[in-house]
């Protein structure tokens, strides 16, 4: 008998699972056997995050890099002890059992990271290998539709203060249950050594499509966000990074940075993969992996 159950059914406001009814707040943590276990917690409770991420503030962030290079080519998020969520485009550069996945990173120029000069209590980073990449079967590299993938690491990791999984929305939390949400694209940029927490604004799909200048036709599984204020900041190398929201004292990822259009004014939206649209595929992919 399989240990994990594949698939689940979501209704509008309550969910029936194996004879039990769950309300949305509880659903996120009890509906899945493989997702959202001890997820989305940090020692900080600020309603508005500082632009520079702090130690232990984003323990789910991971970097993907080639063994012969120091800089990463993509980013992702930890969703279980063995799995990383990123874009399908990012996995095109992954070489199984060669590509390095870095976990527990904060300041890229130091290891271990320190609160102060003589206070280095942060665990050192962990580097594992990308053992297997699982790309969404309906990924289209011309339209970026279903630009999502799960990467299996070669070892299970043990959670620490600097390595934790992110929560994923098992029922939609954007935009129906959250009005005027404060969202962040958290990522390492080329110019900065610590993660930047970029305050973003959710853009409705019809408005976003109008601003695409005919360059791309948005699909159902894509959402858009833009800087709250114009910034001189490059998201190059940020593909796979998360769009995050604070929800019921936890951090949830509801988007994955997919593509951005050339924009000299830094005012155009970025396109993200909608996690809610793909949550069943993510869940079933992990169930299949654990049952093998």
TrEMBL record:
Compartments (UniProt record): Secreted
Main location: secreted
InterPro entries membership: Peptidase_S1_PA (IPR009003), Peptidase_S1_PA_chymotrypsin (IPR043504), Ser/Thr_Proteases_Immune/Dev (IPR051487), Trypsin_dom (IPR001254)
SMART domains found in the cross-reference section: Tryp_SPc
Pfam families named among the record's database cross-references: Trypsin
Any Gene Ontology biological process: proteolysis
Domain (Peptidase S1): residue spans on this chain: 16-287
Keywords: Disulfide bond, Glycoprotein, Immunity, Innate immunity, Secreted, Signal
A single cellular component GO annotation: extracellular space
Superkingdom, natural source: Eukaryota
Molecular function GO terms recorded: serine-type endopeptidase activity
Family the UniProt entry places it in: Belongs to the peptidase S1 family. CLIP subfamily.
Protein name from the UniProt record: AGAP013117-PA
Lineage: Eukaryota, Metazoa, Ecdysozoa, Arthropoda, Hexapoda
